[in-house]
Amino acid sequence: MKNAYRNFLRKYILTDELSFDARVFNIVCSAGVVALTVSVIGHIIEQSAWQLMIIKAAMVISAIMLFFISNSYKAHKVGAVCAIVGFGYIMFPALFFTNGGITGGIAAYFVLTIVLIVLLSKGVALIVFVTTHIAVIITCYVVQHLKPDYVLPLNDFQRYADTVISIVIAGIFIAICVRGLSALFALEQEKATAAGKAKGDFLAQMSHEMRTPMNAIIGMITILKQEQDPVREHQGLRKIEIASSHLLGVINDILDMSKIEAGKMELSSEAFSFRQMLDDTTTVVGGLIEDKEQIFTQAVDPAVPDILLGDEKRLSQVVANLLSNANKFTAIGGRIRLQATRGEDAPDGRHRIEISVSDNGIGITEEQIGRLFTAFEQADSGTSRKFGGTGLGLAISKRIVEMMDGEISVQSTPGEGSVFSFYVLLADGVKALGGKERVILPDEANYAGKKMLIAEDIDINLEILTTLLAPTGLEITTAENGRQAVERFLEADGNFDMIFMDIQMPEMDGYDATRAIRASGLATAQTVPIIAMTANVFKEDVAQALESGMNDHLGKPVVLPDIMAKLHEYLA
Hints:
The protein is of the alpha/beta class. The protein has 19 helices and twelve strands. β8 (451-455), α15 (459-469) and β9 form a beta-alpha-beta unit.
């Protein structure tokens, strides 16, 4: 008997598998069954009216049925509604008229029902239940006032049973309140502790992830100032390039995660070459793979259409993330394979493109896999310390894949390697491409005779941009703020073929400068392409740039392929 009681408590009251509300309902039903059983036995001994004994027996059976139904199907809220309706709206009047009106037991019963209503219902349901419950009680009072003979008097034993029920139900009520408050306090304390620890760990990790490449960049620059050997200079510049790319990746991950959490991440839809996208992506990650002397292979199913319609950059981001992880967690000389195949097309005609990245690295356990795609987490706490990383990449990749109506998964064996696979649904992009050619390198384009105005207030940014554009033959005029950009445009009588416009500048920002140029009245004021060149990269920032009169948007830090693509689009 003792063991059965313990097992009952562990299964229905103390278990963490049931929610707190479910356990409260179990306590209420269990105690109610005990109190009602005692009352029924007493009425049988007393040989009370058969109508009363039937009502009490029905209450016991109902409580038992609700308990097992709600726990068998884990639908305790459905059981709670039945309890409120059955006990509160039907049994309450029956007890009221057979037990001398409002007595101790009935009052306690009323309180218990209210506890159930408050704990197990919210919003409109709470208002409906409470209102109906109060209406039933008021109706009973009105009937008692108009027809006092309808209320049967209590005998001595009924008073005794009523007292027992009152004590039991009052005890239940107190126990529920104490247990509930304790549970809520413990839960909130646990959440606060976990949130504080997570915030601290994340900030510490981000500080490490940002300071490490910055330290490499600053240190290597100091070394290169004194270096005379061209070979070592080239090696140093390569290390600066890798560290800069890592730092930019950390910043992008943080910004992307903030977009996801704010619900502001959106995908573009443009025609692109799938194979070219893979080649570009593997070229970017290829340096890291070469540094570890890893064996990299790539296979693309001929059935995969080359021209697809979708967000090339975001798809490339997912592939690059998986390749970077494979590189990071695979030893020197290890193997990495990228494979792309075509699955069965979707009913709407979109192509199912399946991509997998496999490696023979350290692998992942089943337990660790469950945390992989959660933001700010990695496979284990030692991963970030040993291999680095923000813990955001896979969470971002998962969201991107889902936005492309796909799914990402992983299969892994510890010590043997991992296979990350995902599929996306993309439309055929042949028609959308419209015969456009891709433009990649500046020395492949010749814009001699074309004039460009660049408005940028940071000297080093201006120097980098003009240096990158030097091979194109463009005649470049510069301005260090928005007001000067307007002046340069007016001085040249609007004789510019294109304008790169920074946004955050002193004296006049890029938005106002664009409006002033558009309103200048010169012949080219309305037609000259003005491209925003800014670190403001959220959707609302792009919209604001277009609203001010700009034609397009380039996010900082700008990369050469993107710059060349804009030149080709507006100057070719």
